[in-house]
Design a protein that fits this description.
Blueprint lengths: L1 H16 L7 H21 L28 H14 L6 H27 L3 H7 L8
Helix pairs in contact: 1-3, 1-4, 2-3, 3-4
């Protein structure tokens, strides 16, 4: 649960402090791209798998098609891209530190999820070796 608190704390900090009047073309493109990735992720995953806490539901299914064919945690990718766009609008180093905290938090949170998925699904380690955590091919 602490991962979720840190995650949303970072997101809220960045949203509150973002200077939306200073959105660059890059920031705008990152926001649009992050929203598209988020929507595609939810559509591919189906709502019955959606869970913000790093646990598995009883009926949880391993999704390996669509965007999940390339990225294991595309929703986290979406969050990171969105928050990067916000960070680019904020002067000073605090936003960069918050973004780094968010990145570390999502890495740790995804580690917990991946441990659970490996325990539940025999083919998860093979899937993990073929896909990137947050970015394709990494």
């Amino acid at each position: 649960m602490i991962y979720v608190v840190i995650q949303f704390g970072c997101i809220i900090y960045l949203v509150i402090n973002a200077q939306f009047g200073h959105l660059s073309t890059l920031s705008t493109a990152l926001i649009v791209f992050s929203i598209a990735i988020g929507i595609i992720s939810v559509v591919n995953m189906k709502l019955n798998n959606l869970n913000i806490v790093p646990t598995l539901k009883d009926q949880h299914q391993l999704v390996t098609h669509g965007i999940y064919r390339f990225i294991r945690h595309p929703m986290y990718t979406s969050v990171l891209l969105f928050c990067l766009a916000l960070t680019l609008t904020i002067a000073g180093n605090q936003a960069i530190i918050i973004l780094l905290i968010l990145l570390i938090d999502l890495i740790l949170k995804s580690n917990v999820e991946e441990k659970l998925l490996s325990e539940r699904f025999k083919n998860y380690p093979n899937y993990k070796n073929k896909t990137g955590r947050f970015l394709p091919f990494l």
